Amino acid sequence: MLEVENLYKYYGSFAALDGLSLSIKKGELFGFVGPNGAGKTTTMRIICGLLKADKGQVHVDGTDALKDYRHLKDKIGYMPDFFGVYDNLKVMEYMEFYASIYGMNGKAARDLCLNLLDMVNLADKTGFYVDDLSRGMKQRLCLARCLIHDPKLLILDEPASGLDPRARFEMKEILKNLADMDKTILISSHILPELAEMCSSIGIIQAGQMVLQGAVDEILMMMASANPLVITMMGQVERAVAFLKGQPLVENLSYKDNVIRVDFQGNSWDEAYLLEELVSRQLPVCAFAREEGSLESLFMQITTHNGGGTFYAN
After folding, report:
1. What is the per-residue pLDDT for 215?
2. So what's the pLDDT on residue 96?
3. Which of 61, 99, 218, 237 lies 20 to 30 Å (CA to CA) from residue 292?
Protein backbone atom coordinates (compact mmCIF):
# COMPACT_ATOMS: atom_id res chain seq x y z
CA MET A 1 0.00 0.00 0.00
CA LEU A 2 2.76 2.46 0.96
CA GLU A 3 6.38 2.27 -0.14
CA VAL A 4 8.92 4.95 0.79
CA GLU A 5 12.46 4.56 -0.51
CA ASN A 6 15.56 6.63 0.30
CA LEU A 7 13.67 9.81 1.14
CA TYR A 8 15.68 12.98 1.68
CA LYS A 9 14.57 16.43 2.78
CA TYR A 10 16.88 19.32 3.56
CA TYR A 11 16.23 22.63 5.27
CA GLY A 12 19.38 24.50 4.33
CA SER A 13 22.25 22.28 5.49
CA PHE A 14 20.03 20.38 7.95
CA ALA A 15 18.87 16.93 6.81
CA ALA A 16 15.35 16.47 8.20
CA LEU A 17 15.17 13.14 6.34
CA ASP A 18 18.35 11.25 5.59
CA GLY A 19 17.57 8.31 3.32
CA LEU A 20 14.43 7.18 5.14
CA SER A 21 12.66 4.05 3.90
CA LEU A 22 9.53 2.32 5.13
CA SER A 23 7.00 -0.19 3.86
CA ILE A 24 3.38 -0.63 4.97
CA LYS A 25 1.14 -3.41 3.70
CA LYS A 26 -2.56 -3.06 2.94
CA GLY A 27 -4.69 -3.24 6.08
CA GLU A 28 -1.82 -2.61 8.49
CA LEU A 29 -2.07 -0.27 11.46
CA PHE A 30 1.48 1.07 11.48
CA GLY A 31 2.87 2.98 14.47
CA PHE A 32 5.39 5.67 13.52
CA VAL A 33 7.44 6.76 16.53
CA GLY A 34 10.49 8.86 17.22
CA PRO A 35 11.77 11.80 19.29
CA ASN A 36 10.58 15.33 18.56
CA GLY A 37 12.37 16.59 15.46
CA ALA A 38 13.15 13.09 14.17
CA GLY A 39 11.29 13.70 10.89
CA LYS A 40 7.87 12.10 11.43
CA THR A 41 5.73 15.07 10.42
CA THR A 42 8.02 15.88 7.48
CA THR A 43 7.64 12.31 6.23
CA MET A 44 3.86 12.43 6.53
CA ARG A 45 3.57 15.74 4.71
CA ILE A 46 5.71 14.46 1.84
CA ILE A 47 3.59 11.31 1.55
CA CYS A 48 0.46 13.47 1.39
CA GLY A 49 1.90 15.73 -1.28
CA LEU A 50 2.01 18.79 1.01
CA LEU A 51 5.78 19.04 1.01
CA LYS A 52 8.31 18.42 -1.72
CA ALA A 53 11.07 15.87 -1.16
CA ASP A 54 14.60 16.59 -2.34
CA LYS A 55 15.23 12.99 -3.29
CA GLY A 56 13.62 9.57 -3.06
CA GLN A 57 10.45 7.74 -4.06
CA VAL A 58 6.98 7.44 -2.53
CA HIS A 59 4.26 5.15 -3.90
CA VAL A 60 0.73 4.96 -2.47
CA ASP A 61 -1.33 2.08 -3.82
CA GLY A 62 0.63 2.21 -7.06
CA THR A 63 0.47 6.01 -7.41
CA ASP A 64 3.69 8.00 -7.55
CA ALA A 65 3.05 10.39 -4.66
CA LEU A 66 5.83 12.75 -5.69
CA LYS A 67 4.43 13.31 -9.19
CA ASP A 68 0.76 12.36 -9.45
CA TYR A 69 -0.82 14.69 -6.88
CA ARG A 70 -4.31 14.61 -8.45
CA HIS A 71 -4.85 10.86 -7.97
CA LEU A 72 -3.02 10.88 -4.64
CA LYS A 73 -5.69 13.04 -2.97
CA ASP A 74 -8.36 10.41 -3.60
CA LYS A 75 -6.33 7.73 -1.84
CA ILE A 76 -5.26 9.55 1.35
CA GLY A 77 -7.04 10.94 4.38
CA TYR A 78 -4.68 13.20 6.36
CA MET A 79 -5.18 14.38 9.93
CA PRO A 80 -2.42 16.84 10.89
CA ASP A 81 -1.13 17.37 14.42
CA PHE A 82 -2.63 20.86 14.43
CA PHE A 83 -5.89 21.12 12.54
CA GLY A 84 -8.37 23.93 12.04
CA VAL A 85 -12.08 23.63 12.73
CA TYR A 86 -14.76 26.16 11.90
CA ASP A 87 -16.06 27.11 15.32
CA ASN A 88 -19.08 29.01 14.01
CA LEU A 89 -20.41 25.90 12.27
CA LYS A 90 -22.47 23.13 13.78
CA VAL A 91 -21.10 19.59 13.59
CA MET A 92 -23.34 18.54 10.70
CA GLU A 93 -22.70 21.79 8.84
CA TYR A 94 -18.97 21.19 9.22
CA MET A 95 -19.25 17.68 7.78
CA GLU A 96 -21.55 18.73 4.92
CA PHE A 97 -19.17 21.54 4.01
CA TYR A 98 -16.34 19.04 3.50
CA ALA A 99 -18.65 16.65 1.67
CA SER A 100 -19.44 19.46 -0.78
CA ILE A 101 -15.72 19.85 -1.49
CA TYR A 102 -15.80 16.28 -2.81
CA GLY A 103 -18.89 17.02 -4.90
CA MET A 104 -21.41 15.42 -2.53
CA ASN A 105 -24.60 17.28 -1.65
CA GLY A 106 -28.19 16.72 -0.55
CA LYS A 107 -29.54 13.62 1.16
CA ALA A 108 -26.69 11.35 0.02
CA ALA A 109 -24.15 13.67 1.61
CA ARG A 110 -26.16 13.99 4.82
CA ASP A 111 -26.58 10.21 5.13
CA LEU A 112 -22.85 9.71 4.62
CA CYS A 113 -22.01 12.34 7.22
CA LEU A 114 -24.40 10.77 9.73
CA ASN A 115 -22.82 7.36 9.20
CA LEU A 116 -19.33 8.76 9.71
CA LEU A 117 -20.36 10.69 12.83
CA ASP A 118 -21.89 7.52 14.20
CA MET A 119 -18.63 5.70 13.50
CA VAL A 120 -16.71 8.19 15.67
CA ASN A 121 -19.44 8.31 18.36
CA LEU A 122 -20.64 11.83 17.54
CA ALA A 123 -24.07 11.01 16.09
CA ASP A 124 -25.74 12.78 19.03
CA LYS A 125 -23.72 15.98 18.49
CA THR A 126 -24.94 16.99 15.01
CA GLY A 127 -26.62 20.16 16.31
CA PHE A 128 -23.73 21.24 18.55
CA TYR A 129 -21.41 24.04 17.55
CA VAL A 130 -17.88 22.81 16.91
CA ASP A 131 -16.57 25.37 19.41
CA ASP A 132 -18.59 23.70 22.19
CA LEU A 133 -16.99 20.27 21.67
CA SER A 134 -14.26 18.91 23.92
CA ARG A 135 -10.79 18.42 22.47
CA GLY A 136 -11.39 14.68 22.17
CA MET A 137 -14.63 15.27 20.27
CA LYS A 138 -12.89 17.72 17.93
CA GLN A 139 -10.22 15.11 17.24
CA ARG A 140 -12.88 12.53 16.37
CA LEU A 141 -14.74 15.06 14.21
CA CYS A 142 -11.54 15.74 12.28
CA LEU A 143 -11.08 11.99 11.81
CA ALA A 144 -14.65 11.67 10.49
CA ARG A 145 -13.93 14.49 8.04
CA CYS A 146 -10.85 12.60 6.79
CA LEU A 147 -13.08 9.63 5.92
CA ILE A 148 -15.60 11.48 3.73
CA HIS A 149 -14.00 10.46 0.45
CA ASP A 150 -13.39 6.87 1.64
CA PRO A 151 -9.59 6.94 1.40
CA LYS A 152 -7.57 3.73 1.34
CA LEU A 153 -4.74 5.17 3.45
CA LEU A 154 -5.17 7.23 6.63
CA ILE A 155 -2.23 9.31 7.85
CA LEU A 156 -2.76 10.53 11.39
CA ASP A 157 -0.22 12.82 13.05
CA GLU A 158 -0.51 12.53 16.86
CA PRO A 159 -4.31 11.94 16.89
CA ALA A 160 -4.34 11.32 20.66
CA SER A 161 -2.21 14.34 21.56
CA GLY A 162 -3.55 16.22 24.56
CA LEU A 163 -6.42 13.81 25.19
CA ASP A 164 -7.44 12.48 28.60
CA PRO A 165 -7.35 8.70 29.22
CA ARG A 166 -11.01 8.15 28.30
CA ALA A 167 -10.69 10.14 25.06
CA ARG A 168 -7.51 8.24 24.16
CA PHE A 169 -9.31 4.94 24.74
CA GLU A 170 -12.20 6.02 22.49
CA MET A 171 -9.77 7.08 19.74
CA LYS A 172 -7.88 3.79 20.03
CA GLU A 173 -11.06 1.74 19.66
CA ILE A 174 -12.15 3.77 16.60
CA LEU A 175 -8.76 3.21 14.94
CA LYS A 176 -8.96 -0.53 15.62
CA ASN A 177 -12.40 -0.61 13.98
CA LEU A 178 -11.07 1.24 10.94
CA ALA A 179 -8.23 -1.27 10.63
CA ASP A 180 -10.80 -4.06 10.76
CA MET A 181 -12.53 -2.33 7.83
CA ASP A 182 -9.34 -2.88 5.80
CA LYS A 183 -8.14 0.72 6.05
CA THR A 184 -4.37 1.10 6.04
CA ILE A 185 -3.34 3.45 8.85
CA LEU A 186 -0.07 5.26 9.51
CA ILE A 187 -0.23 6.78 12.98
CA SER A 188 2.35 8.95 14.69
CA SER A 189 2.22 8.95 18.48
CA HIS A 190 4.28 9.36 21.63
CA ILE A 191 1.93 7.13 23.66
CA LEU A 192 3.96 3.98 23.16
CA PRO A 193 2.01 1.48 25.32
CA GLU A 194 -1.14 2.19 23.30
CA LEU A 195 0.73 1.77 20.02
CA ALA A 196 1.97 -1.62 21.23
CA GLU A 197 -1.63 -2.62 22.00
CA MET A 198 -3.28 -1.60 18.75
CA CYS A 199 -0.62 -1.55 16.01
CA SER A 200 0.30 -4.57 13.91
CA SER A 201 3.75 -3.12 13.15
CA ILE A 202 5.91 -0.16 14.11
CA GLY A 203 8.78 1.89 12.79
CA ILE A 204 11.17 3.93 14.93
CA ILE A 205 12.77 6.96 13.33
CA GLN A 206 15.73 8.96 14.57
CA ALA A 207 17.55 11.84 12.90
CA GLY A 208 15.65 11.29 9.66
CA GLN A 209 16.46 7.58 9.39
CA MET A 210 14.38 4.48 10.07
CA VAL A 211 16.33 2.59 12.72
CA LEU A 212 13.87 -0.24 13.39
CA GLN A 213 10.82 -1.60 11.59
CA GLY A 214 8.83 -4.78 12.03
CA ALA A 215 5.83 -6.56 13.52
CA VAL A 216 5.11 -5.55 17.10
CA ASP A 217 4.95 -9.14 18.37
CA GLU A 218 8.27 -10.04 16.77
CA ILE A 219 9.97 -6.93 18.11
CA LEU A 220 8.72 -7.52 21.66
CA MET A 221 9.82 -11.17 21.41
CA MET A 222 13.25 -10.02 20.25
CA MET A 223 13.39 -7.65 23.22
CA ALA A 224 12.48 -10.41 25.66
CA SER A 225 15.48 -12.52 24.61
CA ALA A 226 17.76 -9.56 25.27
CA ASN A 227 16.34 -8.70 28.70
CA PRO A 228 18.09 -9.76 31.92
CA LEU A 229 17.27 -13.14 33.42
CA VAL A 230 15.77 -12.78 36.90
CA ILE A 231 16.21 -15.71 39.28
CA THR A 232 14.52 -15.69 42.66
CA MET A 233 15.93 -18.07 45.28
CA MET A 234 14.46 -19.52 48.46
CA GLY A 235 17.99 -19.53 49.91
CA GLN A 236 21.62 -20.51 49.16
CA VAL A 237 22.04 -17.37 47.07
CA GLU A 238 25.85 -17.37 47.35
CA ARG A 239 26.06 -20.94 46.03
CA ALA A 240 23.83 -20.03 43.11
CA VAL A 241 25.89 -16.91 42.36
CA ALA A 242 29.14 -18.91 42.39
CA PHE A 243 27.68 -21.43 39.96
CA LEU A 244 26.24 -18.78 37.61
CA LYS A 245 29.53 -16.85 37.44
CA GLY A 246 31.14 -19.93 35.95
CA GLN A 247 28.66 -20.24 33.10
CA PRO A 248 29.93 -19.17 29.63
CA LEU A 249 26.67 -17.43 28.59
CA VAL A 250 26.55 -15.27 31.71
CA GLU A 251 28.12 -11.86 31.12
CA ASN A 252 27.05 -9.71 34.05
CA LEU A 253 25.51 -10.66 37.37
CA SER A 254 24.13 -8.75 40.32
CA TYR A 255 22.01 -9.77 43.29
CA LYS A 256 20.16 -8.32 46.23
CA ASP A 257 18.55 -10.37 48.98
CA ASN A 258 17.17 -13.47 47.20
CA VAL A 259 16.92 -12.02 43.70
CA ILE A 260 19.69 -12.55 41.13
CA ARG A 261 19.80 -10.60 37.86
CA VAL A 262 21.88 -12.05 35.03
CA ASP A 263 22.76 -10.77 31.55
CA PHE A 264 22.32 -14.10 29.79
CA GLN A 265 23.18 -14.46 26.10
CA GLY A 266 21.49 -17.79 25.48
CA ASN A 267 18.22 -18.72 23.80
CA SER A 268 15.20 -20.49 25.30
CA TRP A 269 16.92 -23.90 25.13
CA ASP A 270 19.93 -22.47 26.94
CA GLU A 271 17.64 -21.04 29.61
CA ALA A 272 16.00 -24.45 30.10
CA TYR A 273 19.41 -26.10 30.44
CA LEU A 274 20.57 -23.48 32.97
CA LEU A 275 17.43 -24.00 35.08
CA GLU A 276 17.91 -27.76 34.93
CA GLU A 277 21.51 -27.36 36.14
CA LEU A 278 20.43 -25.15 39.04
CA VAL A 279 17.80 -27.65 40.14
CA SER A 280 20.16 -30.62 39.75
CA ARG A 281 22.50 -28.92 42.23
CA GLN A 282 19.61 -28.74 44.66
CA LEU A 283 19.58 -24.97 44.56
CA PRO A 284 16.09 -23.81 45.66
CA VAL A 285 14.87 -21.77 42.68
CA CYS A 286 11.55 -20.07 43.33
CA ALA A 287 11.16 -18.12 40.07
CA PHE A 288 13.10 -18.08 36.81
CA ALA A 289 12.15 -15.74 33.93
CA ARG A 290 13.31 -12.99 31.63
CA GLU A 291 12.58 -9.49 32.87
CA GLU A 292 9.61 -8.01 31.06
CA GLY A 293 10.39 -5.29 28.55
CA SER A 294 8.24 -2.69 26.83
CA LEU A 295 8.07 -0.65 23.66
CA GLU A 296 9.06 2.36 25.74
CA SER A 297 12.30 0.75 26.95
CA LEU A 298 13.14 -0.33 23.41
CA PHE A 299 12.47 3.19 22.15
CA MET A 300 14.81 4.65 24.78
CA GLN A 301 17.57 2.14 23.98
CA ILE A 302 17.41 2.68 20.22
CA THR A 303 17.07 6.47 20.17
CA THR A 304 19.85 6.85 22.75
CA HIS A 305 22.40 4.35 21.47
CA ASN A 306 21.68 3.77 17.79
CA GLY A 307 24.76 4.13 15.70
CA GLY A 308 23.13 4.01 12.29
CA GLY A 309 21.50 1.41 10.12
CA THR A 310 18.07 -0.16 10.17
CA PHE A 311 16.86 -3.32 11.83
CA TYR A 312 13.96 -5.18 10.22
CA ALA A 313 12.13 -7.78 12.29
CA ASN A 314 10.65 -10.47 10.09
Report:
1. 87
2. 95
3. 237
